[in-house]
Amino acid sequence: MMRVVLPLCLLLASMFARGSEAAVSCNAVQADLYPCLAYVVQGGNIPQSCCRGIRMLKQQAKSASDRQVVCRCIKSAVGRVSYSPTYLKNAATLPGKCGVKLPYKIDPSTNCNSIK
Length: 116
Description:
This protein has helices spanning 2-12, 26-33, 37-42, 48-60, 64-79, 85-97. The protein has 116 residues and is mainly α. It starts with a helix and ends in a 19-residue tail after the last helix. The longest helix is centred in the middle third of the chain and has 16 residues, at 64-79. InterPro entries: Bifun_inhib/LTP/seed_sf, Bifunc_inhib/LTP/seed_store, Plant_nsLTP. It comes from Arabidopsis arenosa (Sand rock-cress). Plant non-specific lipid-transfer proteins transfer phospholipids as well as galactolipids across membranes. May play a role in wax or cutin deposition in the cell walls of expanding epidermal cells and certain secretory tissues. Belongs to the plant LTP family.
């Protein structure tokens, strides 16, 4: 199940995390979003640690280039596994439910080059 869900959580990071020159690595993004897994898989209440991780990653994203690099990394991970529409729906609702406003949707079809 982790092979299916972790890439979805990585997708969440596409708009938050910093790229290869940044202080945040893909491993750090995974660690920050790990508390979100239960919600992505089961729904229900979102852990506060999940929302803290999302807010922290968004604060660290300083440029479009940073977000684009991480988006590409995440899309690559998502492309290697299958995922369910329910998981994607739950992942897509996380930012709003955590009070984080994003300029685009969480979706595996996101065009990383268009992220500003």
